[in-house]
Amino acid sequence: MLIDMGIKGIILDKDGTLFRYGEVWGPILSTAIEKGLVKARMPEKRKKECIADFCRIVGVDQDGRTYPDGIIFRHDRILQATFRILIKTFQYRMNPWRVWKAVKPILNHEDFGLKERLKHMEFPGVREIFEALHAKGYIIGIVTSDTTSSTDLFLERMEITSYVSFLRTKDSPTHKKPNPEAIREFCAQFSLESNEVAVIGDTVVDMEFGRAGKAGYCIAVLTGSGDKEGLSAVADVVYPGIRNILSDPILFP
């Protein structure tokens, strides 16, 4: 039986947690990959195959499919991803330097005209969720691997900037997930114990982050790259999407 765990603060991931990762980033990143590979002189006769292979390595394709072992999801496996890129580079007989120049902007989370693209995107229900969390008195933080500028654009578009009291991004000096430093900083800033913090994310890395930081409650959602079986092994509860937390018996008893 679930009991009152005394949760006072909530740290959320952004991409794949507040919205379906593939639906938003799939078209953006696959277009960037294609443009980069054209500059890297991929073989025209194998163009479709080449783009598909590199999209899998990055972690998302044009159709919004996500691949859990992609670079964008497993930042702790950059070395393995680098070998995969090199293998494909030689397989398609492309210049390694040109391929690196194609992939580097994605690793650096460049926005690829994100501000303009976001004008045409909708994020239904996200603001209402944050309003509900705020009304319950939760201190809300965002810890993401995206850049600060990109994150600010998303929070503004979702109209939740005013609800976020703590933000750590790729640009922050804080160690990246799954290192729990961000949880410690969150607790120190708001005088919380780690077991008073809930972590919500869409990947195994997010859950490892919560466990390493001794968070009191780890919630996984299936709108990113993770699958239910893998996430169930490391999360306290797994939901189809972020909206389901509104009926969570711990957060909203």
Notes on the structure:
With 253 residues, this protein is of the alpha/beta class. It has helices at 21-39, 47-58, 78-91, 96-107, 114-118, 126-135, 148-158, 181-190, 204-212, 228-232; strands at 9-12, 139-143, 166-168, 197-201, 217-221, 237-239. The protein has 2 domains: 9-19 and 123-247, 3-Layer(aba) Sandwich (Rossmann fold), CATH 3.40.50; 23-116, no CATH class. A 6-stranded parallel beta sheet has the order 3-2-1-4-5-6, sandwiched between helices. Helix 1 (21-39) packs antiparallel against helix 4 (96-107). It has 10 helices and 6 strands, in the order E-H-H-H-H-H-H-E-H-E-H-E-H-E-H-E. The mean pLDDT is 90.
Cα separation of the termini = 13 Å
| Total count of helical runs of at least 4 residues | 10
Tally the beta strands: 6
Reading side by side through the largest sheet, how are the strands ordered? 3-2-1-4-5-6
The CATH class of the largest domain:
Alpha Beta
CATH homolog superfamily of the largest domain:
HAD superfamily/HAD-like
| N-to-C order of helices and strands | EHHHHHHEHEHEHEHE
Shape: elongated
Secondary structure: helix percent: 40-55%
